[in-house]
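Reply to dn_fold:

You asked what the input looked like. This is it:
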Amino acid sequence: MEIFLYVLALLVAIFISNLLNRFVPFVSVPLIQIGLGVFIAVMPITFDLKLNPELFLVMFIAPLLFNDGKRTDKTALWGMRMPILVLALGLVFATVVVIGYFVHWMIPTIPLAAAFALAAALAPTDAVAVSSLSGRINLPKRIMNLLEGEALINDASGLVAFQFAIAAMVTGVFSLVDASISFFVIAIGGILVGMILSWLKFRLLKWVRGLGMEDVTFHMLIQILTPFIIYLVAEELHVSGILAVVAAGIMHSMEQKKMDPQLVKLNVVSQSTWSVIIFVLNGLVFLLLGTQLPSITEVVWYDSGSSNLQVIAYILSITAALIILRFLWVYISWSIGAKQRQKQNKKTQLPQLRPVMLTSLSGVRGAVTLASALAIPFYLDDGTLFPQRSLIIFIASGVILCTLVIATFILPLLAKSEEVTTADERAEMATRIRILRNVIRELKEQTLPETKAATDEVIEDYRKRIYDLQQNSNSSRGMDEREREKRLEIIQWERDNTQKMTDEGRIVATDSYRYQHYLNMREQAIKQRFRTKVKTAWMFFYRLLMLVLHPKKWGRVTNKMKKGISKDSERFQAIRKLREENEILVIQKLKEQLTKENADIIGSLITEHTIFLERVRKEHGPRGKRAKFEQKKREVQVIAFQLERDIIQKMFETGGISRDLARDLRQNLNMIETYLDADFLD
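and this is what came back:
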């Protein structure tokens, strides 16, 4: 019962942390979760969690890095491979040496090998913490790609260095040649294991599908188990499990996507399931860090042999040393790269101070550092206690907190004006509309005769989404004078065309009169909007009152109206034809007037009248046949959703949209896709 209450408390804390972040958005979610973890640790729950580092890595780090590998921008990762390797390998080993000697010099009670172990634990930046930064801080796209690529790779180099430092401390034996050879074997072996196991999985799934086994639950379970199995197999083969799951994640992201309904179902379920899993695991990582702090603090606070002020000074000094070393390493490596490009007659410039500072302060430590520190053994080979184990763990935890605090409060000040983003509402709205219009254009180019009806309906759905976006934007700013004048001008176009058709004898006078009355009502609604709203509200209330108080009388009136409509079907068909021609005329005139200066108004009106035209044509055409091409429409929707995802990704990779907007667009698309495919999944 105690463990159930403990897990329940952790899950409730995850919910509370995100709720609190809505009220204090300037504090990062990881910091809030660490605080809640401390609160859980001091609660009167009898269950005492003993965190196993190996279990921590396989349960949390493996699936989180697998997911990060799937989401990583592969093109950017390959394009920045040299800067990433310089940080993920070079800086890690430089940190082990420099910070190791610095710690031993500052705290002589920590042996040199143990100081190297602490430095190795502090060397890797944390992919989970870096991901949390991307949701809050508008870091330049190049720096964010560099940080993500570094965090994916430096875990392996840091853990390998940590293992050798611990071995040297425990056994008293160390060989640089053996350590170097082992590192490359472990790293390359981990990548190969991840790639081979992913390829075998793809072959297995292809064979299973060939047997007709398309059960979504079965395939989803395989997806969930993938990072755990790959990590465990890699570790059993004594290679890097972390690099194995990263390589597997990248392999999965490059898997060819096929547009068949079964994979659509799997994609919908996968998106929803993994979003929940990652959401919970991200929260648990920092909550568990918080739960460990009280017990670690208690030991150091009372039994370390150093004063509390000294311990705090150690943490601040080591944090400062890590930032300074990272700053110097980034600046020197970028300067060398710039000079090399200048020798090759490439236009470049020396690194500026602000990007270097951003990269230096973004080196957040997190879960891997904690797991490494907790993996320090209690005893040496000779049976004596590991020297200053509690102090080392406390320093590691303190550095994690310091880097998170710096990233939360200092980094946003430097990153504030670094990147032009689409935070402006009008610019963001224009971007969203441009994406949807690109999807419409692509769909039109891919339309086949047998899918034209279904494609037209999907295109109309996209036009409705554009219209809704424009209406939301317009409602927030109200109808300005330019839009009001243009709408009145459109009514006059329709009025003139109606009169022209009447004079030519194409419609009878009574139909012309009825349509002119409809135009007069629209004109009155624009000129006297408040009065029209009051009148509309009164009519709605009156009909509702009639329906409640006199249902039979209202039923007779409704039936009488329906009979009248059926008798006058030819007249209504003529009016629909008139409206169709008017809408075509309006769209043509609006397109002739469209310029960059009036695109916000004219573009919105073109979309609005295109939707009206499609509705009129559907009313004019045969009814009751919609169910016949529902399946074709769904297939076209699948293609449209993938086109939309591709456009979003391309705009993000080319710098057209920010990381936050790209993530928001993908989440919105996932929600729409889940909603539209809900019936299909049952």
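Residues 425-681 form one domain.
Hope that clears it up.
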